Amino acid sequence: MTTRRTGLREQKKQATRAALREAALRLALERGPGNVRVDDIAEAAGVSPRTYNNYFSSREQAIVAAITAEREARVAAALTAGPARARLADALTEAILEQYTQPRDRDEMLLVTTSPALREAFLDAAGAIEDPVAAAIGRRLGDADTSTARVLAASVAAAVRTALRQWLQPPVEPPATGGLVVPSGSLPDLLRSALAALAPALDAAEEKARQRSLR
Amino acid sequence: MTTRRTGLREQKKQATRAALREAALRLALERGPGNVRVDDIAEAAGVSPRTYNNYFSSREQAIVAAITAEREARVAAALTAGPARARLADALTEAILEQYTQPRDRDEMLLVTTSPALREAFLDAAGAIEDPVAAAIGRRLGDADTSTARVLAASVAAAVRTALRQWLQPPVEPPATGGLVVPSGSLPDLLRSALAALAPALDAAEEKARQRSLR
DNA sequence: GGCAAAATATGCGTACACGCAAGTTTGCGT
DNA sequence: ACGCAAACTTGCGTGTACGCATATTTTGCC
Predict the structure, then answer these.
(1) B 150-189, residues with C-beta < 7 Å of strand C
(2) What is the mean pLDDT of chain B?
(3) A205: Cβ–Cβ under 8 A, 6 or more apart, which residues?
(4) How far is the C-alpha of B14 from the C-alpha of A200, rounded, in Å?
(5) Which residues bind DNA (chains A, B) (predicted)?
(6) Is the pLDDT of residue B4 over 70?
(7) Residue B182 has pLDDT above 90, yes or no
């Protein structure tokens, strides 16, 4: 009874949502994202244009949703499946890295690069990992301090967004930088170093939870 | 020569922007936010409706901009003015708390509560403190690791957003919580505890910078 | 002062987001 | 099996976002 609420209803809703996502991605890939109207997506998914906006509140949202749809679930799964004895920060880093290193999504990752609006929507969508991460952190912290878990999860999401934003940045012409600017490394490296900055906060929370449980 | 680029041009731009902000806020306060159209704001500011969208890309943005316009500047000022010997985390917390505790903005803070769209825009606008905070942290860290500063600033902004979101939440009817739910404390408390969770990460970065400067 | 280039303002046209008030489907109690 | 209430879909209407082409202003330069 984790996700189910009312059976057929929920089932159809998810189906419609998935149909819209996939239609949006398919059309965007074959025509280019600029040549896809909302009406086209709705038609391809077999619903009215108005219904489209009951599911997604912007044209780009459906496209990026198709790309990031399962990331959140996979992050959560990787976190709960992982060994509980590892450092929370390490478990998180591993789980997240895993999701952004899959070479399977090559085309999609290239697609989001093409338009500013898509880039923006993609960064927004990355925030969706916050909820599962908050749940996972909350579990690791013993469900005691939920609001700390929320803050840490929000920070993790922010760090991921920072890394993604830097990775998405067009390699601008260095006008006269005396070699002081790092040339925007690979995504895994960017993610690692971004999350590394948060590790002390995660460690501290973990330690506090441990002390609480001993008392 | 910090902000100036070409004199008159920039000056007029800022004037137009300010006029739009203030017109938007004034109209929203006197008619209620739902009864203000973009055309009204543009007319009140003496520009064409199209020009409005050259400055703000949503109806709500102008309203919240009027409210949060100076927050970023004030945070930056408070950070650079503060004693450099204090802990970075403390300086940050103080500077931010100061900005959200001013009783002068009572009406405005009530205004953003009234509509979901406004709440959302307000949370978005809170992200504007990221840039000045990043600059300030970067300075404190000796301008060595810019990307760490960015990540930390993004996390701080995320923490602030988390606190604000919780504060904005309508006090929902507790359906059957056995007294386990904290009843959404005051904004200063929420901000303090949110930022406290990040303090260890800020400490660690500061310590690292100190060691680097000694070497 | 006058001029060419760059930045900005405006009008227009198209596509979009979303509230509202129907109509339709689903779930549940009896 | 039946019917009711809640949830979902749909069409319509209004207001909004923004690309593009054009007119206007500002600036650096001579």
Answers:
(1) none
(2) 88
(3) A88, A137, A141, A145, A148, A149, A152, B197
(4) 41
(5) 37-56
(6) no
(7) no
Residues B25 and B93 both lie in one domain: no
Domain housing B38: 8-66
Considering the domain architecture, whether residues A48 and A88 belong to the same structural domain is answered as no
Asked whether residue B133 is domain-assigned, the answer is: yes
- The answer for residues whose C-beta is within 8 angstroms of residue A24's C-beta and 6 or more apart is A36, A41, A62, A63, A65, A66
Burial class (CB in 10 A: 0-12, 13-18, 19+), B53: middle
Q: Residue B131: which of B163, B147, B154 has the closest Cα?
A: B154
If pLDDT is split at 50, 70 and 90, which confidence band does A75 have? confident
Quick one: pLDDT at residue A182?
53
Same domain assignment for residues B31 and B49? yes
Nearest CA in chain B to A162: B151
Local structure of residue A6 (DSSP, 8 states):
S
> At which of A24, A46, A66 does a domain end?
A66
pLDDT-derived band at B105 (thresholds 50, 70, 90) equals confident
* CATH code of the domain in which A166 resides: 1.10.357.10
Residue B8 CB closer than 7 angstroms to strand D? yes
Q: Which nucleotide lies at the shortest CA–C1' distance from B9?
A: D26
CA distances from A148 to A50, A134, A145, B101 (A): 39, 9, 6, 22
The verdict on B148 and B52 lying in the same domain is no
A3 falls within a domain: no
* Burial class of residue A163 (count of CB atoms within 10 Å of its CB; 0-12, 13-18, 19+): buried
Note whether B161 and B121 are within 8 A (CB).
no
- Among A49, A66, A83, the domain boundary falls at A66
Whichever domain contains B62, its CATH number is 1.10.10.60
Indicate if B62 and B40 belong to the same structural domain.
yes
Residues B151 and B164 in one domain: yes
Q: Rounded CA gap, B36 and A136, in Å?
A: 43
List the single residue in A with minimal CA-CA distance to B195.
Answer: A151
Q: Is B143 helix (H, G, I), strand (E, B) or coil?
A: coil
CA atoms within 13 A on the CB side of A65: 17
B148, B161, B205: residue with CB nearest A154:
B161
Structure confidence at residue A175 (pLDDT): 47
Task: Answer whether B162 touches A (CB < 8 Å).
Answer: yes
